[in-house]
Amino acid sequence: MTTPAEHPAGLDRNNPEAEIVARAEAYRNWGRWGADDVLGTLNFIDAAKRKQAAALVTEGTVLSLTQPFDMNGPQKGWRRRTNPVHTMLDTGTDAERGSQGFPHGIGGADDVIAMPLQCSTQWDGLGHIFDHGFAWNGRRAGDVVTSEGDLVTGIEHAAASGVSRGVLLDLGRFLRPDTGELDDGYAITADDLNACISAQGATSVVGTGDMLLVRTGQLTRARRTGWGDYAGGPAPGLSLTTAGWIHRSEIAAIATDTWGFEVRPNEFDVPAFQPLHQVAIPNIGLTIGELWDLDALAEACIERGRFEFLLVASPLAITGAVGSPINPVAVF
């Protein structure tokens, strides 16, 4: 079997079907962790990896990597994805007026939030994307996700898996030191990833069980110029041709500061939509994070001269969900 091209110049830009199939077959992890597996590449995180990650904590500094969850977010209603709607059920005004019905002067506040699970900082679960009707590990998509949710690989199974060594690759600063921001539509290649690792140094070397964070700088730009098409429009991101690099590196998960993780528009001259998702989630079994805020983390890494840290990024145990909002934290 011919090895799929690992640079965008080698893509047949008129045949996304063939390019996707070639990578799905070359890098498929079905059966690697058994027929009943529900974690995919999160299996690469073991006790030794967590101990290694914990040893990186030397000062106790914690940075949150989440974007806000509020009505001022970037969502524009694509596929009914909206920004969170936050509603108060009980307020201080109610307490002052004594209308809550509690004894001896006690009062309180309660609230509720309604939102798509992938409207802000989040993980894509293994039931989020299918390939030709098949879900992760070769299961039929209709047997996995029904109107009752993801009955097999629901995000709740990963609730204890989001703790590992985190590594930041600041591609924005490495490739565009003048601005720190990659242009929309820039396709990050395997060569780019390797060159960034070399430039950043030994603490950037990516290995089995690591959770890789890729900063493009697009969020930085959106904060300065406005959301625009940040949610779903053109963006820098990983090239489809990085699928082999991802597979060989044995990373447990990857996250970016963009809406869709991979480069947009996608790398074809005919209709295509998120081809790297189609390879990575149902075939490689990769957990993907999007809409992460990596700006403060990048500054912290530069200040310390190291790009590795303890990363705690567990999903909510929402039964049957195909994704989850998170508040990932990096600990130095």
Key structural traits:
KFase/CYL; KFase_sf; single chain; 17% strand; 15 strands; Kynurenine formamidase; 2 domains; 10 helices; 332 residues; Glucose Oxidase, domain 1; two-stranded antiparallel ribbon; nine-stranded mixed sheet; alpha/beta
Give the C-alpha Rg.
Answer: 21 Å
CATH architecture of the largest domain: 3-Layer(bba) Sandwich
* Total number of distinct structural domains: 2
* Apparent shape: globular
CATH structural class of the largest domain: Alpha Beta
Report the order of strands and helices.
HHEEHEEHEEEHEHEHEHEHEHEEE
Helix content: 10-25%
Main sheet specs: 9 strands, mixed
Examine the coordinates and then state which fold CATH places here, giving the name of the CATH topology of the largest domain. Glucose Oxidase, domain 1
Number of helices: 10
What would you give as the CATH superfamily of the largest domain? Answer: Putative cyclase
Overall average residue pLDDT: 97
- Low-confidence segments, given as residue ranges, are none
In spatial order, strands of the major sheet run 1-15-13-7-9-11-12-4-14
Strand portion:
15-25%
Quaternary structure of the protein: single chain
Pfam families: Cyclase
InterPro entries: KFase/CYL (IPR007325), KFase_sf (IPR037175)
Protein name: Kynurenine formamidase
